[in-house]
Amino acid sequence: MSDQHPSDRQSTDTPPTLESLDARLKAARLASNPAPKRRRELERTAVGRAWRLTVEMVAALVVGLGIGWGLDRWLGTGPWFLLVFLLLGAATGIWNAVKTAAAIGRAAEDEDRPQGE
Q: Domain residues of the chain, as ranges?
């Protein structure tokens, strides 16, 4: 039993072609790099979806707090900009979460739909 692929054996004296070696290398790289497939699987799970929504909400709140705190420190206005931008950050986070949830729902429906519809 040899390690050569059957399509690589042209004769007993000739080595495999570069094209066949290139195709085998590409196939091996794809098989050994499961990261894109793993990411799609994680996004399909409920935990992946929940984490995505949570991160978007927290990021919007942190950005709003940071902008408000920075403006208050710069202008010396007390907590007013902090409160305003906290509310804007919360509203933005909720809006992004709603849009993301709708997109996830559409993608899930598209995957569940049989081909040809």
A: 43-110
pLDDT digits (tens, 9 = 90+) for 19-36: 888 888 888 877 776 566
pTM over 0.85: no
- The single-letter DSSP state of residue 8 is G
CB-based contacts of 79, cutoff 8 Å, min separation 6: 72
Average pLDDT value for residue range 2-15: 59
Contacts of 93 (CB under 8 A, 6+ apart): 56, 57, 58, 59, 60, 61
Nearest to 61, CA basis, from 97, 101, 19: 97
Cα dihedral 90/60/62/45 (nearest 10): 110
Q: Which amino acid is at 4?
A: Q
Cβ-based neighbours of 75, under 8 Å, separated by 6 or more: 81
* Interatomic CA distance for residues 103 and 14, integer angstroms: 54
